[in-house]
Amino acid sequence: MAEHSARHCCLGWDFSTQQVSTRAQTRTLPQSFFYKDSNHPGLGTQGGVHVHEDGLTVTSPVLMWVQALDIILEKMKASGFDFSQVLALSGAGQQHGSVYWKAGANQVLTSLTPDLLLREQLQACFSISDSPVWMDSSTTAQCRQLEATVGGAQALSSLTGSRAYERFTGNQIAKIYQKNPEAYSRTESVSKISVSCFLPSLGSGMNLLQIQDKVWSQACLGACAPGLEEKLGQPVPSCSVVGAISSYFVQRYGFPAGCKVVAFTGDNPASLAGMRLEEGDIAVSLGTSDTLFLWLQEPMPALEGHIFCNPVDPQHYMALLCFKNGSLMREKIRDESASRSWSEFSKALRSTELGNGGNLGFYFDVMEITPEIIGRHRFNAENHEVSAFPWDVEIRALIEGQFMAKKIHAEGLGYRVMPKTKILATGGASHNKDILQVLADVFGAPVYVIDTANSACVGSAYRAFHGLAAGTNMPFSEVVKLAPNPRLAATPTPGAFQVYEALLQRYAVLEQRVLTQTRRPSE
To answer: Where in this chain does the record put each Carbohydrate kinase FGGY C-terminal domain (predicted)?
Structure first.
């Protein structure tokens, strides 16, 4: 790719419920242009979705994404954006959203006229006009049915990377087949939310793909709906070039006829690419909820977390762990123990010893996902539960506990810290160097901070460049080597490994004790 001028770029797209956005990224990577559309006139959505009367069903109008795509491309054209310089494009859609194309839609897509907008030509192409999205939780019955078919929740997780979740595409398809068989029979193909009118997408996050073999699970397909494999098409590696761009975009906007389309993926895998994780790395997003992205070689699927195919290395995997009690929990303890002051909060972390004198705490004011525990539980060095800690011990117990839980559950999915491991921290709490110091100490790895604004867009653009290099065996790290480096924020304190090696074992045992105690009343 060295022969391309600096003006050449790739487009990275991100299709979410609240907005559609794209980023034009140059080969030398520091310069970019960003366009987005978050308005959906005439569609009556709130935050991009319709919440149905049952409170469980949540959908978005399919035409919302088509309309947003039209608007963004027209804005780019009006601003003078030179589409002829686009070498390739890729993108991300909601990991679990789905679009249902009516019989005959493919014929329409292959004969689009450049004189009309996409929305005008695609209005009648969908057998289901409202797509189920990631917020939907109406498919519990279908989840239990799928798990029963393959031998239980753990069996399904071992097969597809996750136990059955209501938002996953396979269970949504099963519901549509059961509740609206006529619409399903009219469906020619099912694709993920993305520029899905042209392209296949990632199979992970559907409860349908066998993650080890990278093929559809026949048992799961059969449990969801008949004839599903034909409607889905065959999964492909994320770095695959799936073809050249549609002539519609060449004629209407001036894309080059040779512009490549690289397979789209989900928003979380695209974010992993945007953060440029490498083998052994971890990304920790410290926000309202905390999220852990892991690069795995040998995954160990469990009842918690999710295993996906790696979006930048088809031989490896990625994992996702979510923790509900994130920044809001940290803010509560700050308010209660540090007079609402982050300065006092940090002072407590600096003044207390590593390991907190053996005091451990679990702080879950809302029902946690990983693990399923609620309440606050404190233990002294003798493993006796106590009602309270001194204010500074309370603060360190919270932060140490949050990071020990993350490491324990990451290891439960097969993750191991390596000598070259980097931790990339993002989100609000990543601005607090004392919190990051605890993170470095608990994991035994250096912590870096990185700007991850619009990371799914950025990752999609990076993946488009990577797709152009497909067949040359160029690693993803080589493609993005000119990108800005993350900034080192914290390194492990000498002796921290020995302190936390013992403490992590105690934390895991106490977590199981708390889990047993909190489950007992409902048994």
So the answer is: 283-466
- Chain segment 432-465, per-residue pLDDT in tens: 999 999 999 999 999 999 877 788 899 999 999 9
Concatenating the DSSP letter of every residue in 131-147 gives EE-TT----HHHHHHHH
Give the residue ranges of DSSP H helices in 137-277. 140-150, 153-160, 169-179, 181-185, 218-224, 228-232, 247-253, 267-274
Q: Is 364 helix (H, G, I), strand (E, B) or coil?
A: strand
450 vs 433: CA distance, rounded Å: 14
Whole-number Å distance between alpha carbons of 421 and 277: 10
Domains (ranges, CATH) in the chain?
A: 9-268 (3.30.420.40), 277-449+493-523 (3.30.420.40)
CA distance 118 to 111: 12
pLDDT tens digit string along 222-247? 999 999 999 998 898 888 999 899 99
| Assigned token pair, 282 | 């971890």
Sign of the CA dihedral with 224 first, then 139, 19, and 237 last: negative
What phi, psi does 48 have (nearest 5°)? 85, 5
Question: How far is the CA of 323 from the CAs of 168, 260, 294, 450, in angstroms?
Answer: 19, 38, 14, 21
Contacts of 396 (CB under 8 A, 6+ apart): 348, 349, 352, 356, 359, 438
Residue whose pair of structure tokens reads 């795995």 in the numeric block? 296
Q: How far apart are CA 268 and CA 121, in angstroms?
A: 31
Q: How many residues does the chain have?
A: 523
The residues near 143 (Cβ < 8 Å, ≥ 6 apart) are 164, 165, 166, 168, 171
Band of pLDDT at residue 17, cut at 50, 70 and 90: confident
- What lies within 8 Å, CB to CB, of 319 at 6+ separation is 292, 293, 294, 296, 299, 305, 306, 307, 308, 410, 413, 414, 415
Rg from Cα positions in the chain = 24
Q: Is the distance from CB of 239 to CB of 63 less than 8 angstroms?
A: no
The token pair that represents 381 in the structure block: 């060095």
Burial class (CB in 10 A: 0-12, 13-18, 19+), 483: middle
Q: What is the mean pLDDT of residues 481-491?
A: 92
CA angle 219, 223, 225 (to 5 degrees): 120
Checking DSSP bridges between strand 447-449 and strand 58-61, what pairing results, if any? unpaired
